[in-house]
Amino acid sequence: MKKSFYTLAAISSAVMALSACGTSSNNHKHGGMVDAPAPTAPAVHAHHNRTPTQVSVSPQQAIAIAQKQAGGQATEVHLKGKYGTPVYEVEVRNGQNEHTVYVDAASGKVMGSKLETEWKSMRQTVVSLERAMEIAQSKVSGRVLEAERDSKRGQIVYKVEILSADNIPYKVIIDADNGNVLASYVDYDD
User: Fold this and answer.
1) What angle do the packed helices 129-139 and 59-70 form, to 10 degrees?
2) Which residues pair with 77 in a beta bridge?
3) Are 156 and 125 spatial neighbours (Cβ–Cβ below 8 Å)?
4) What's the average pLDDT block by block, 10 residues per block, for the chain (190 residues)?
5) Is 95 buried (19+), middle (13-18) or exposed (0-12) by CB count in 10 A?
6) Phi and psi (nearest 5°) for 22?
């Protein structure tokens, strides 16, 4: 699933880059250079700039919408740019099926979804993704950028990325069985 997403992203980037290499009848004015188009609404590409003003749906609301659409338990939520607008990509697991639901971050409308059969499935946990996000925000005040469930050394954890009010990115790691905060740190790596 992730490999096909990255392949699609790479192809889209290449097409956009090549389309910018067009010709202009007035390119002689600037020594062969073509004027760049005027900037438009902010893009949702930079990892820590994913909180554009168009986002009015919270990650928690997007999770609720996706869970209603797909049935099951949400394991990840990411704010991305799709369909020309900020969109939450929410992964919901139901048994061995994984649904990826795309929720418009401005309206809450489901933009699309896809279903994939998972051969390995993580066991159910006591702490939900929504509760893990609440716990992380009680540790670090700010806006949730991403949250996902992961398995580390046999232990299931939630990794929650938060952008603080002063634009510092934090990662909070939470035990999915008891809600304990295992780690909290500034995360400039992503």
Assistant:
1) 170
2) 90, 147
3) yes
4) 40 40 42 38 36 79 96 92 81 88 94 77 84 96 92 87 93 96 86
5) exposed
6) -70, 175
